[in-house]
Every structure is written in C-alpha cells, then in structure tokens.
Amino acid sequence: MNRFGKLLLVTMVVALAALLVLPAGAQDEGGIIIDSTFGSGPINFNPVTSTSATEQDVMNNLYPNLLGVNPVTGVIEPNQPGGLAESWEISDDGTVYTFKLRQGYTWTDGEPVTAYDWEYTWDAVKSGEVETNLIFLIDDPVVDMTAIDDYTLEVTFTSADCEALNSAGLQPIPKHYFEPLGFAAINEENFTDADDLEVGPYQLASQIPDQQTALIPATWDNPDGLPQNDGWVMRVFGDQTVEFQSFLAGETGVLESVAPNLQGDVISAAEDGSLQYYQYSPGDAWDYMAFNLANPQNPQAAYDESGNLIEQDPHPLFGDLRVRQAINMAVNVDDIIAGAVFGNGARMQSIYAPGSWPYAEDVPFYDFDPEAAAAMLEEAGWIDSDNDPSTPRVAQGAMYAEDGTEMTFTLFTNQGNTRRTAIGTIIQDQLAQVGIGVDFQTIDFNVLLDILDQQTYDTFILGWRNSYPFRADQRQLWATTSDVIAGDNFTSYINPELDDLWVQAATVPGCDIEARREIYGQIQQIFHEDTPYLFLYSINGMYAWNSKYQGVNPYPGAFYWNLSEWTVTE
Amino acid sequence: MIKYTIRRLIQAIPTFFGITMLSYLLMTAAPGGPTAALAFDPRISPQERRAIEARLGVSDPWPVQYLRWLTGDDWMRRDTDGDGRADTCILIACDADGDGQTEPAGTRRGILRLDFGTSFFERRPVIEVIGDRVNATFELGLSALVVSLIIGIPLGILAGVYRGSLFDNIARLVSVVFSAVPIFWLGLILLLIFGRWLDILPLGGRHGIVLTGEVPPLYTRLNYLILPTFVLAANYIAVYTRYMRASLLDVINQDYVRTAQAKGLSGARVWFVHTARNALIPIATFLGPAVTGILGGAVLTETIFSWPGLGRTGVSAVIQQDYPVVMAVVIIGAAATILGYIVSDIMYALIDPRIRFD
Q1: Cβ contact (<8 Å) for A212 and B203?
Q2: Mind telling me how many Å the CA of A511 is from chain B's nearest CA?
Q3: What is the pTM of this model?
Q4: pLDDT tens digits, residue range A540-559?
Q5: For chain A, what is the mean pLDDT?
Q6: Which residues of chain A does B159 touch, with a Cβ-Cβ cutoff of 8 Å?
Q7: What is the mean pLDDT of residues A261-284?
Q8: How many CB pairs (< 8 A) connect A and B?
Q9: CA B84, B89, B95, B97 torsion: positive or negative?
C-alpha cells in the first residue's frame, strides 16, 4: 500500500477512535425527572385546543383543573390534587352545581386564578370561534358556566346525571390575557413559549418539537407548595423500541405506559433492583371484535329524517344471534390473551373489565366449546355439508342468508398493530376449526375508520380506552341515537330496553352506587346475551420507573398525581 | 451557463406544479381525512365532526382545496361590510359549517404568495413548523452526504487501485451489504450495539436534555450525530464505492493513462491525479439523485433515531392527514429534487470541459 493509502487508513482509525471516546448519553440532569413518549410528541398546551393525552399530562402540571380526582379511589372529590374545587352544592333538581374554589393560586403575571377564568373558558368553547374538541359539552351535558364571584362557579347541566361531574373538569385559560384579544386569538396560542401564562406548580422551560418538553418549578408561590425536584422533561422518541431501550439503559427514567409485550422484560429487568414497576388490572384499555349486525350492503342510520326508527336490514350472518353466540364459544379467549398480550390481560364477558366498580361478577363467560358452537351453527342453518370442518359451512335454512351461501366473512384491523394482528390470526385459525372462513385483513387505520364510519364491514378488531376518572356510562357507543353514519354505534346494535337502562343508571336518585351497580349489572347481562362484540380482554396496565426516583406512588390510572414530590437520588 | 440555468429553472415550473397537483389529489383521495385523527373522540358527534371538516375546508372538492392552497382564500371569502364576517363568497360557502353564522373572512394568501397555511394539528403557521425542523434535517443530510463522499470515493479508488486484492474484495462485500441492508434494521441494530450494549453512544435524539430551549452547539453533540449519519450515509457509501471503482477501472484503459505511465510518472500520480480525477466525472451526475435519496432516507432515519427533522414531521403529517404540512414537505422535496438534478447537470458540464451548455 502506498503512502496515500496508509495515510487514509491512519485517518480512518483515528476518526473511529475519536468516536469511541466521545462522551455518550445525556448531559448531567441533576434532580430532573426524565420521562418519555413516542410518536407525535406534545405540541400544544392550550387547555381549550389541545387534543392529545400526552399534552394533557404536561398541562396537568401547568394549569389546575376545576375538579380533582382522588388518586386512590379514582373518584372526583373536593380538595383533590390538581383540582381547585374545595366544595360544591347540588340543586334540588340535580342540574345545578355550585363550586367553591380554593384561593391563592395565581398566573405567572401575578393575576389571581378566579371563577371568571372558567366562565371565560366556557364562553370561548361555546363561541364557535375556537377550534376545540370540547364542543361535545355544549348544550348537552353542560348548559352554562357562570361565575357568581371570584371564587364561586355555577355549572348548569342539561339533566340530573350521576356522571355530570366528569363533564365539568375543565382547565382554564387566563381571561385577563385573552379578553382584549378576542376568542379567535385562542386558536393562535399554543402556550409553548417559556413566557406564556401558567399557574403551576411547574412552568414551561422549553419546548422543542419532536425532541423534548421541559418543565421547571414555578418561580411564584403556589398554595400546594413547589416541586421538590428540579424539573420534569419529556423526551420524544420516534420509535417505541428505542424508547424502551433508552429506559432500560437509564437514559430516561420513566415509562408511563408499558406495552403488554414489554411488561415481562420490565419485570425481568427489575430483578436487579435498578427498576421498579406497578402493574394493575384491569388496565384502562380493552380489545374487542365487533360484529356488524346490519347488512353492510345496505348501511343505514337507526332513525330516518323524521326521527322514526328504521327497521335495519340484518347482516346475513351476524343478524342471527345464534351465530354470534356460536362464535363466542368457538374462540378461546385465553389463547388470545396468551398470544396477543402475553398473559397480561383480564378476560371480559361484557363491557366492563373485572375489577371496575360496575363489573357484575354474576354475568357468565362463554365457555370455549367448539362442539357446542358447531351444534349451534347447525341449528342456525349453517351446515357442514361435506363433513369437513376445514371448509366453510353453507347456509341451508339460515335466518338471513340464501341457501348455499358460504359461511365466510371479512375481519379487519389496523395495520402495524402486532397485538391486533395476533388476535385476528388466532380468531381466523380457531373459527376455521368449526367451519367458518375468515378473510383477515390488516388495513391502514384511516381506511378502517372510513369503513367503520360507513358501516360497510362484516367484523373488525379494535380497542377502546376508558376515560379517567372512569365513566360507567357508554351511551355514546351503544345508544340507538349513536347508530348514524359516522357515529360510534358502528355495530348498529339497537335495543330500546338498553336505552332505558342507560338513562336509569345515570339518573338514580341520590346516585346511590349500589342501585347504579345493579342497573349496570342488568346492562351487562343484556350485552352478554346479545353479544354485539366478541368481548376479549382488558390489557393490564403497567408503570415503570428507575429506582433512583423516590416518592413515586402510583394508583391505577393515576401515575403523575404527586409528581411534585418525586425526587432523584444519585 | 446562466442562460442554461435560467432555462432549466423555467422548464422546472410546470414539473413543480404537476407534482403539487398530483400530490394534492392523492392526499385528498386517501380515505379518512384530518378530522379522523383530529377529532377521533366518541364524544364528538358526526355532525360536529362534519362542522370541523367544513371549517377546515377539507370537505370541499379537491380542485377547490387545491386552488385555495395555491391562491389563498382571501379572495374566496370576503368581508365587504367590515363586520369581520364573510359576506361575499366565491367557490366556497360563507357559512361552511352550517351553524347559521357566516365564517370569518379568509386571510390565507396561498403558496403563490408564500403563505403555506396553518397546520391543522400544531395550529401554527406551517412555515414555523417547517422552520423548527429544517435545520435538523439539513444538518443530518449534509453530514450524511459528506460522510458518504469522504468514505465512498476513497474506498472506491483504493478498491480500483488494488483490484482483486483482499481490500478490494472487502470493499465490494461491504458495499453490497450496505446496499442490501434496510435502513430501519441497520439503525436499530447499531442503536442496540453502540447505545445499549456498549453504552458509548446515545440512543437517539439530536442532543441531551436542555432546559433553555436552545439547541446546543454542534461540537458538543457530535456523539448524537454519529449513528444517524452513518446509517443515512451507508447506502450512499456503497453506491459511491461501486461507482467510483467501476469508473476508475473504466478510465484505467484509456490511452492517456497508458501515456502517463509510459512517461514514467509515479504510480500515485497516475492513479490519483490522472485516473481518479477523470473517474470522478460520472460521480458528479449522481449528486442530484443523492440529495433526493438522502431526503427520502431521512424519513426512516429520523424516526428511528428520534431526530426532530422534516422526514419525521412528514410521516406524522401524512398519518394525521395534516394537508398543509404534507404539501410543504412535498414542495421542499420537489424543489430539492429539481434543483439537485439541475446542479448535477451544471456540475457535469463544469467538470468535463467537453460538455457544453446548450
């Protein structure tokens, strides 16, 4: 090799050596809590226009809510962390709540936080000039929010509703700042500058899109005291695997939500004491397979333009209850829990997960019984004409299908979700054992949403995430009025008895919890029998954090409630 | 040359608009729409979702949307009586959301007047959204381009010079591997090795934690740049190595090389002055596609390495169907591609005196 070649080689070796000795990892973080998220990071901290749960985690440390949740019980109560309502009274008809607010909280500029801030926030939502998802509150369930004085707020609801408080939990924007600018100015303000108005206990230090959000303790007084740590930083990763590896490597210190396929890794890694975790069941998310009870060739809303109930054109297969029940018996959900969430799930027999307060223990599960499923399909007119279970059955006297129709259907889920892909694969395999052909397809999420909105599917696999605090009322998913094109009663499940029970449960006099539980028990029994979904499981939740973080005291659904008290030991 | 460049730029205008029109058509033809992600909340009624779509203008026919994107809506929805509300409307409804109240007068000027619009999701001007990310992408792209040239060209030359040697075989093997290995896989493996197991490089990001919001100077965060640069450059190292080697071996048989050797010039002078210099000419044509390819590669690299650049933003925008941001990224990509090819052609003519600007 000549002189030039040698020089080149030496240069490359020196360069490689230099790379290896460069300082790695993050800079010295001191007492800073380093959290993380993946995907689209937080970009908007405006309480009215923000739309993501990650942004909500950040905003909960910048602005108070009207109402706080008891982290132990998960119930809205007076004087709870993050909530300014110290007490409230309810009118005799149950529609007007008068809240007394705690005093002493100020915005960054020293102006006090008052009931007028909430009134203004509500006026902004109602104005129609602000692009906000809070529009769902307008008129129903919330009629108005009025400040009686600086520290008294009156909220009027459409009707007496035991879960009305869940709809009143707004975070305020500063009236004194926005009033001179007008409501439209709220659209332009993302509160991502360090000098924006906040309440605390933290203030925004910096926001670098797709990289990090950094909070530091507020520099003004807060009646709840200032944080004991030096700050809280949320790093944004592009990929979940890299986020997880960064946590294991100690680059980040907190994982708010550990995916079920990674929970085992956390438990193993925690054996040496470097990590701690909190696993809880039921988690706040659940998966299901939905049946379209109506004919996808003829999708229609529940009501016509005059408000009359329309007789739905039944689905050739799933219009028959026996077919849905047979599928319940032909699918081994325990196998799905093992295969899709690695055992980190609690089986559901209806709409509520075991352990949630309305859960009815006496509602049975469908036993895995392929023989009984096959017999039920025979009874429903789906015959195994060639005595070969591996080929699809054919209709012979089926309720809604022409004779000779093959028993096959399409099952959709969203592309890129390995958990749901596993569910679909297992269901496809197990239903094939009883002569049901499943065309399982993973498709783009937006395409899937479009299909659901139009109700032009046979079945699909998706999941729902419960709100926090937990709402037992699921009318938005199941009420007959939600069976409209682009509504959320995708399955066209129409049951007038259920419509009445939802209302009864929400308006029990005095909101007696036992009376409500009993009604929700009846609802679950009906769901179990009618089975518009194949209910699968709720995913176990898990939080994990580095052992050098002290003071972490989580409860189900409440991880960050005492973030101010977390400290970092070296 | 100036005349040639101007002519090429003028020729690029219809190409550019063709790209934007096709992109807009494809984007709006995709199922779903921004409200699917923006308002995917069961508490929001279908009517409310439709109202949001109407206010965003995404329920209009795509030619109207495209025209508004190009020319703005300040002429489509005007306020002539000064009450702040539109009263004269062309092509679009004054009361888009059907709430009985006309919408505010249009304020958008369209990209022809350098207004890229407002991001549906970030709720701020697209120019700010792009401005926050373009530096990161430029930094990564430039590093990758420089590294690929610095490593790829010498490797190709040495492989050519020592043709058939162990070095040549290794270089050819490496270039095949680098061409074949998918970026996302290589990125994850390198992160695991250097970030997790050896713990000598950070696991992604552009810099460590900062409280000020200021991006630290480049020299303090070179360790964050190493892996994404290498991964993004890997494919181009392979390409340059192969091209350079092939080009060198092609030139080696030319008469002037034999003449130089016959004159008794040293081997190094023949190889690196006479041969390599002429072998570089075809490489110049590759610069345009390389710029485009590196922008495309940044989409995956930025996602894996949590690099806060345009590629990652573009992916999010496509998933969320944030039309104004998608179109801005398309414009940048199209402009970079067109300019890259023009620069390539110009360089080719500059390097090779036999080629004339016509």
Answers
A1: no
A2: 22
A3: 0.87
A4: 999 999 999 999 999 998 99
A5: 90
A6: none
A7: 93
A8: 199
A9: negative
